[in-house]
């Protein structure tokens, strides 16, 4: 088992999990609802009394809990009654989470009752603790952890959450509490995504970047909706054909970039990055630059603070220099 350790979430990533363990790009950057069934209501105010800080995660409320993470960090514990270690950790987590006064929610996922939740997070051991922030999974630790270690990880998680504008807390039971208003252009992008109009969403993000070039959220949003737009055009049959062609035509840039998109959408992040880096290492000229630019865009999709992005940057540097 790995020792406890934290991994920072991307400030811009907002990809969403589904029960197959892939990234559900169709729901990218969707504003979170007030509260899922069986989950606490989120608000920007002070925590109220009587609200549950532990929620039993199920297949039915899983996506709602992921959406809730746009307002409050949600700490998932993948556990089992068959494991004394897991049961003990769950009890410890309940106490530690309670002490944070509504700033974090604990979602207990019984992998015996709901094995698909373990598949969604691709866990290798029980117990495993994974936080979700703005829809982005953040692996925390496997196996036992002391209260002090748990507090250290939650403290860091809350710092990252604040940096991402996720500052909600458990409210006074007002299930209709709303998240703080979005900037107009981001709201326009969200609305366009909900309508399936990725081109309009991209236009809104480009306008936001024109007004504020350093807007990391808009930059990531643009990369994400452009990816969704590209994938929208592919049928399942075409996707399978592209994968076959990719094995036969390693230097066809269009094929390789399309399969990289498919890998990202399926949660195979490192495969996507390695595919493009390998292409860059074998090719020169305009196609090499096109691949490099696409790789940087996919870094934004995944999140520039993700460890897999950092590793891929090193690989990119090796083939370029």
Explain how this protein is built:
The protein is of the alpha/beta class and 321 residues long. The protein is 50% helix and 10% strand. It is built from twelve helices and seven strands. Strands 2-4-3-5-6 form a five-stranded mixed sheet, with helices on both faces. Helix 7 packs across helix 11, helix 9 (253-265) packs antiparallel against helix 10 (269-282) and helix 10 packs antiparallel against helix 11 (286-302). It starts with 41 loop residues before the first strand and ends with a helix. Residues 1-37, 41-51 and 172-179 have low confidence and may be disordered.
Tell me the span between the first and last alpha carbons.
Answer: 37 Å
Count of DSSP E strands?
Answer: 7
CA radius of gyration: 20 Å
Helix-strand sequence: EEHEHEHEEHEHHHHHHHH
Helix/strand-derived category reads alpha/beta
Shape: globular
Q: How would you sum up the major sheet?
A: 5 strands, mixed
Query: What proportion of the residues form beta strands (DSSP E)?
Result: 5-15%
Write down the overall mean pLDDT.
79
Helix content: 40-55%
Summarize the structure.
With 321 residues, this protein is of the alpha/beta class.
List the helices and strands and how they pair.
Elements: E1 42-43, E2 54-56, H1 62-68, E3 74-79, H2 84-98, E4 105-110, H3 115-121, E5 128-133, E6 136-142, H4 147-163, E7 169-170, H5 184-194, H6 198-211, H7 216-232, H8 236-248, H9 253-265, H10 269-282, H11 286-302, H12 307-320
Parallel strand pairs: 2-4, 3-4
Antiparallel strand pairs: 1-7, 3-5, 5-6
Helix pairs in contact: 5-6, 6-7, 7-11, 8-9, 9-10, 9-11, 10-11, 10-12
């Amino acid at each position: 088992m790995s020792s406890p350790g934290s991994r920072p979430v991307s400030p811009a990533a907002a990809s969403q999990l589904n029960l197959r363990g892939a990234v559900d790009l169709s729901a990218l950057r969707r504003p979170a609802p007030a509260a899922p069934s069986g989950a606490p209501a989120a608000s920007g105010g002070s925590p109220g009394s009587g609200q549950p800080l532990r929620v039993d995660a199920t297949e039915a409320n899983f996506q709602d809990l992921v959406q809730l993470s746009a307002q409050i960090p949600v700490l998932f514990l993948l556990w089992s009654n068959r494991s004394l270690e897991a049961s003990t950790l769950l009890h410890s987590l309940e106490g530690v989470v309670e002490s944070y006064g509504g700033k974090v929610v604990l979602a207990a996922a019984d992998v015996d009752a709901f094995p698909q939740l373990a598949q969604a997070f691709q866990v290798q051991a029980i117990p495993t603790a994974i936080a979700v922030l703005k829809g982005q999974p953040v692996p925390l630790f496997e196996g036992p952890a002391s209260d002090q270690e748990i507090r250290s990880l939650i403290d860091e998680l809350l710092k990252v959450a604040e940096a991402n504008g996720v500052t909600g807390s458990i409210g006074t039971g007002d299930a209709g509490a709303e998240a703080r208003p979005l900037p107009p252009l981001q709201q326009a992008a969200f609305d366009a995504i909900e309508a399936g109009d990725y081109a309009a969403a991209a236009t809104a993000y480009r306008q936001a970047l024109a007004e504020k070039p350093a807007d990391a959220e808009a930059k990531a949003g643009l990369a994400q909706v452009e990816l969704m737009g590209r994938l929208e055009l592919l049928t399942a049959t075409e996707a399978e054909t592209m994968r076959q062609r990719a094995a036969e035509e390693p230097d066809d840039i269009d094929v390789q970039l399309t399969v990289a998109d498919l890998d990202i959408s399926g949660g195979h992040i490192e495969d996507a990055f390695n595919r493009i880096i390998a292409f860059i290492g074998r090719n020169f000229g305009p196609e090499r630059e096109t691949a490099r630019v696409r790789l940087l865009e996919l870094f934004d999709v995944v999140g520039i603070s993700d460890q897999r992005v950092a590793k891929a940057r090193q690989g990119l540097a090796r083939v370029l220099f």
